[in-house]
Structure prediction request, 323 residues.
Amino acid sequence: MTSSKACYKLLTITILLLSFTITSLAGNAEYADVSECRAESGDPSCHNNKIAQKFKLIAIPSILVANMIGVSLPLLSRFIPVLGPDRDMFVIVKTLASGVILATGFMHVLPDSYDDLTSKCLPEEPWRKFPFSTFIATVSALLALMIDSYATRTSKREGEAVPLENGSNSVDTQEKVSELGIVVHSFVTGLAMGASDNQCTIRSLIAALCFHQLVEGMRLGGSILQAELKSKMNWIMVFSFPVTTQVGIALGMEIHKIYDETSPTSLIVVGVLNACSAGLLIYMALVNLLAHEFFGRPKKIHFLGYVAVFIGGGGMSLMAKWA
Prediction:
């Protein structure tokens, strides 16, 4: 319980810092020479608020359905063993999803943030003097790593102090802590989607988040199957994880209503949120999903896993040509 409280404290501090940064940076935009600009990033045809709104409304049930399918698959493994979370098929699906998520962060969300934060609608100082998009993405990824590693260290200390019922004093803390981190990442990414009016980026995010929720749903379903839901925190995860992204999207849509979408402020808010989202997507793909997938696996699974990563990443990268 101490580890979860520590995570929430760190999360609260992070959100407050992010809010302060956005507010301060947005305030500087009031001194821009151009008082009203159309928030253009990349192809102007990608910016249509009505179409973007429809995609957001489609995203909410789509992501939920993907999560429900993911949770159900391990539970069906009693009848169809190949669907089990410990099977090779699960590894291939995770690596494919990792490629999709990684390419979404690098090829879709980060460039959109860069276009927003280097727009001529914003003052040249400091916006075009410093690469804010890549800087914010870097900080977001490092903050995610810091929160996850700190919570893991705290949880391990608690596990050593409290032996389990079977006599062992080790717990699968990495899995539980990573699930808590995934809730945070999913919320922030949903927030960025909800605040954006770029339907091209939103389409890519829907694909990435559906894959992500499918994979994490399978992991959660595996925990249910193995009866690893004895603590209150685990039950909170079961009920909060499927709707975290949707809550972020809904909140982002409300934030989008606050500012004029043709103002410099909109470019800054959306650009900063997209940069945060890109950093978190890259972190999720490389650390939460891929980092431990190939340890102790046969050479065949290594090969198929890397093929799946390149197929997922290559396919999503190719989509950047049209979206």
User: Anything to note?
Assistant: The radius of gyration is 20 Å. The chain has ten helices and no strands.
